[in-house]
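A note from the maintainers: we've had questions about how concatenated examples are separated. There is no special marker in the raw files; a new sequence line simply starts the next protein. For clarity in this README we add a label.
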Amino acid sequence: MACSLKCGSYFSGFTSSKASTSKKFPPLSFDFLGKPLAVPDQKIGSRNCSTKRENKFSVQAETACVSRSMRWWEKNLKPNMVKIHSAEELVCSLQNAGDRLVIIVFYSPGCGGCKALHPKICQLAEQNPNSIFFEVNYEELKNMCHCLNIHVLPFFRFYRGAEGRLCSFSCTIATIKKLKNALAKHGYNRCSLGPAKGLDESELMKLASAGELSLSSLQLPSLKEEAMQDLVMMRSMELSGLFDKADNNRTKVEKECALL
């Protein structure tokens, strides 16, 4: 963070080297970091000038932060590049993207490969205005990235509508052709039936169990349907077990009656 230092200073207690002479010094002024600095007149006493000399120096400093220079992951961002700040924001953004192609870019501020690739990603975002690029800072959302099994940076995931995840891979500036080929393959406009799928249901459950996501705030009818199906299956298995037990008891009773 770049800060400018603004200082105001004053000097007091300048005395003459000769005690017999009482003399006023003219006011002094000069510039200190672009700010005028004035030294006012002081009355010099004739008593004990040679034995008691009080030279006081006081500096009052005030720091004011100026606007910091932009960090590399904040430069040259395009309108279709969106910063993601939470797991819930990522899930909702994917669901609201409709049929548009979504590219999730996982990066880290300390990753040299991410820094080198960033200008190229900005260019690709400008060349593909109908696509959406979600920027995920690994350092800020480390727990979420672990739930999504992101262990290599930079990393990319492609999503579209009801199809959900299309592909995922890692690439660097040397293998950027992989990213360009994926954009050429999936970047065409198309319509899909049904709502946007977004993250896999297993990933949603991981995020929920890790405390990164609240499923109650999301509309996930498929999860509810699967839960109901599991419940019906469990009930049917329990009932079949009871019927099997009843059949075994009836067979046992029939055998005992035949022996009588």
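[label: protein 2]
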Amino acid sequence: MDLRQLSYFLEVAQHASFSKASQSIHLSQPTLSKMVKSLEDELGVVLLDRSTRKVVLTEAGKLVQTHAQAVINAQQQLLAAVVDLKEMRKGQFTLGLPPVIGASFFPRVIADFHQLHPDIEIQIVEEGGKRIEQLLIEGKINLGVIVLPVDEQLFEAVPIVKRHLNLVLPLTHPMQHSSKVRLTDLRDEPFILFRQEFNLHDRVKEACIREGFEPRVAYESTQWDFIYELICANQGISLLPETICARLDPEKVRVVRLIEPSIHWDLAIIWKKGGYVSHAAQGWIEFAKGVFTNRN
């Protein structure tokens, strides 16, 4: 049994005539009759009473008509749903965002995308970059945004943002008036970092180690505003993204923008290598890439 048999049978039932049905679907009457007869043979019942002037549905024909119409309707709904997905009228995907990155870059991007595609649902999962990578590997989320670098054997990556980290000091710090600071000058400072599940933690530690020392970590947090308050309370220093530093009160902390060597803070949208990316997710990647290309 195939969908053509069902649709041809429904045409005959609707017109109560093989000749009218054949004209309607532009199929020869013998071919149409043969297709309906093959359906009857397959089901083992007579669907149409052909002995009268008009073709009349038998009891079995009425039953099959009801179910056949449901099948055809389901097929049409399926095709429409697929078209909606392909044309991004509907869809959904799960996006992993570290809190710092999400708050800094994506509220406006998500809002603008939703305005263009109101029926595409984005489920946001807030986690650190390392946890996002693990969730992608496990197939629990579809896309993630992380700080580069990323393991290119495990993930596909689309770079979107290039930024640097700035040094944030208490106002009482001896280097508060410096316009430029070398990382080696911070060797004995107490560092306040994001927790280890955040890629920013590794970026800072790796940069310091390349300069010959491991930073002395006084505190760790998952929240940039708590790190900021600790700096205000003269509990240490930190290296934070430019976007966060732009929010800090210059009356409470000092931001030094020139660090030698500079520490890059480059972002990318990533997904599991070889993993399926839905039309909705592909559309969002292209949209976000376009937004950040214009901003950079």
